[in-house]
Amino acid sequence: MRTEIALFAAAVAVAFAGWLSPDWLSFLLTLAFAKALVVTGVVVQMRVGLVTFGQALFYCIGGYAAGLGAQYLGVHDAFVLLAAGVGISVLVAAVCGLLLARYRDIFFAMLTMALSMILFGVLVKSSALGSTDGFNVATPTYFGWEPSPEGAKRMVFLLTVAVSAFAAIVFHRLMNSGLGLVTEAIRENEIRVEYLGVSPRAVIYANYLAAAAVSALGGGLTALATGHIDPDMAFWTTSGEFVFIAILGGTGHVAAAFVAAIVFAAVRTFAIQEAPHTWQLTLGVVLLVLIIFLPKGLWSLVSRKKHAAPVQPVAPATTSEAAA
């Protein structure tokens, strides 16, 4: 319960600070939190021992659901658009998961990437959806209320923080539930888990659905924040970015994805500003340093300090105690 209260308090603090900060900073935090939701989906699968290079599939579905709902169906409510993205992503994951739950290691990673690239190829060839250019997403409303053009970005920021706080609390409970503990057992020894009467394939399938849902939320919020979507949302480099952030933060805590996403956004923004032609090199150096000095991610700094309890000195025994 203390962790959930801390997550809620952190979300309130970020929302308050972002509301008072410049527009560029609140926009940066919006995108960082939206991507952190997708990274949470990656981390959930990493805890079961699977690395996905195709999480951009659901990120893209969430974004395009928001854009298509507003442009072709006349739906502008942000909550309806996000729910539509989550629903479609879960349906797609329910079908794809039947195949993916059978595979492990590099085969799982390559199959997820292949599915994501199929969607990318379909979108690139669809002139009705803007092909490689994509199309713009209309400004969302909130239960019928439409904010002013000046406050629209701020409202998306607050929505993103609220959704992120809710998702973080839910996934914190999930990771510490029986299902979450079973995922770690599957990562260590899948055969023994099966001997205990638990189906590893069913657990992996459920994890895949949960990861798809939270990733769609991230894609939908990104579309609402930027006001534009394009096929690059499904490209393999986008999935690689999510894996990068997951490694940067580590899998020790649900908050690690959000901390890492903010750090990643700050480093990339600084690198692009100072060295626009070699910013990828800067990110590569950061990842290399991380692997060498923090193989378990940034969150290992917090967990290391938390578990480093001071050693209490042992008082020498008195004469009477020794005699007794």
Uncertain spans:
319-324
- Specify the biggest β-sheet: 2 strands, antiparallel
From the spread of the alpha carbons, the general shape counts as globular
> Can you give the helix content as a percent range?
over 70%
Give the class from helix and strand content and strand pairing. Answer: mainly alpha
Distance between the termini: 45 Å
How many runs of DSSP E, i.e. beta strands?
Answer: 2
Mean pLDDT figure: 86
Over all CA atoms, what is the radius of gyration?
Answer: 22 Å
Number of helices: 14
> What oligomeric state do these chains adopt?
single chain
Domain count: 1
As a percent range, the share of strand residues is under 5%
Strand order of the largest sheet: 1-2
SSE run? HHHHHEHHHHEHHHHH
Task: Give an account of the 3D structure.
The chain is an all-alpha fold. It has one domain. The chain is built from 14 helices and 2 strands, in the order H-H-H-H-H-E-H-H-H-H-E-H-H-H-H-H. It has a two-stranded antiparallel ribbon.
